[in-house]
Design goal:
Rossmann fold, 9-stranded mixed sheet
């Protein structure tokens, strides 16, 4: 582990919940050229037979039941992950709804965890509240995922670990994230402060929450979204970028045979058939890029790959907003990140460099099993370090 500190607040390290499947291109195998056909009526490719995960409800084994349901939820989430190139595929909603249903059944076996609906514009944002044991106002952590992850995954990325440590934890799916996009809700937006604001309005209505000790954590693309919100939301006492993102679209332009700035400029053109062919050729060679563009169109509700590329270029701190953050910031970095590694300066380090607030950079290494994007091989370690930093910061 490498820790860099700047500013007046110290940092440290702790402990966390069991590791789960990270269902994304970060840790999943490349998708096939086209989705596999449904095998039998009502089944979803990618899910093992029910005998592998179905809990013994009638046997009086509540822990095994809970764990079986959590496995089932992860299997269903993984099964629909690579199908978004065809948003009309009925297997997408089938698998998503079953995965959420399994998760809801699982948390019925976990004290203090309840589903919530957070008022947002003319709809709601769905998530889960993890209430810590004990009396009196407690610190709270708000958590959201990123480009492709779900609120249910956050159970393993720190929600349960926070509850164990005496934090109230509120997880949610924002615009463009699974609960919204699967249920005809709003698409992604880069001005995440307009999402976090209503979430904090909801959270601070709870008398058990200490409003002076609320932190925000974002996973993956959330490593851009959470700091972006912190730049304009004064109620936050700290923010965690797991992992830090400075310029989101660089993860895509790195796969194109064009300079980054040229790719961004041409993506925004009204017509550019040569650019369209360049993107098509690149995605034909790269399963990761093919998935990213298919999923990107799905969650931003854009019509073409080039239109999505132009939209994704808006998720950047090149506008100087990172310098507006005033609360302490923890920036996490994976030393072999699939998307944001760089020979000169990684995206987390670019974000760290542009921060004016008290800041800490923590690097996770291959020796620790944490060198992959968002550290799926070392989740307990990552959660430990994050909450030790929060303990010392808020």
């Amino acid at each position: 582990m490498t820790i860099h500190r700047s500013g007046s607040r110290p940092c440290a390290t702790s402990d966390s919940p069991p590791t789960a499947v990270r269902t994304s291109a970060k840790s999943s195998p490349p998708p096939p050229a086209s989705p596999p056909a449904t095998t039998t009526a009502g089944t979803t490719p990618g899910c093992p037979p029910p005998s592998v995960w179905r809990p013994r409800h009638a046997g009086g084994h509540p822990i095994s039941t809970r764990d079986g349901l959590l496995r089932a939820s992860s299997y269903y989430r993984a099964a629909e992950f690579f199908l978004h190139g065809n948003p009309g595929d009925p297997r997408i909603d089938h698998a998503y709804e079953r995965g959420v249903s399994c998760f809801l059944d699982a948390i019925a076996h976990i004290p203090g965890v309840t589903p919530v609906e957070i008022p947002y514009q003319d709809t709601v944002l769905r998530g889960y509240f993890y209430r810590a044991a004990g009396e009196g106002p407690k610190p709270a952590l708000v958590m959201h995922n990123g480009f492709d992850g779900a609120a249910e995954e956050l159970h393993f990325f720190g929600a349960l670990g926070g509850q164990e440590r005496g934090y109230h934890v509120l997880t949610f799916d924002g615009p463009g994230q699974p609960a919204a996009i699967h249920r005809d809700g709003p698409a992604f937006r880069p001005d995440w402060e307009n999402v976090v604001g209503p979430v904090l309005d909801f959270l601070t209505q709870d008398p058990g929450v200490d409003p002076a000790r609320i932190a925000l954590l974002g996973v993956s693309l959330g490593g851009y979204l959470a700091p972006r919100a912190a730049a304009y939301e004064p109620r936050l006492a700290a923010v965690v970028a797991l992992d830090g993102v400075f310029d989101a679209v660089s993860a895509l332009t790195a796969h194109l045979p064009l300079p980054h700035e040229e790719a961004v400029r041409r993506a925004a053109a009204e017509h550019d058939e040569e650019m369209d062919r360049t993107i098509a050729d690149a995605r034909a060679r790269s399963p990761i890029l093919r998935w990213a563009f298919d999923h990107g169109r799905y969650v931003t509700r854009t019509s073409t790959d080039r239109e999505f590329l132009a939209e994704y270029a808006r998720y950047s701190f090149k506008d100087g907003s990172a310098g507006k953050i005033t609360c302490p910031v923890l920036v996490c970095e994976a030393t072999d990140d699939l998307f944001y590694s760089a020979t000169e300066e990684s995206d987390p380090r670019k974000l760290y460099r542009h921060l004016a607030a008290p800041k800490t950079l923590v690097s996770f290494t291959e020796e620790e099993g944490g060198d992959a994007h968002c550290h799926p091989g070392a989740l307990r370690l990552a959660v430990a370090r994050i909450f030790d930093w929060l303990d010392d910061t808020i």
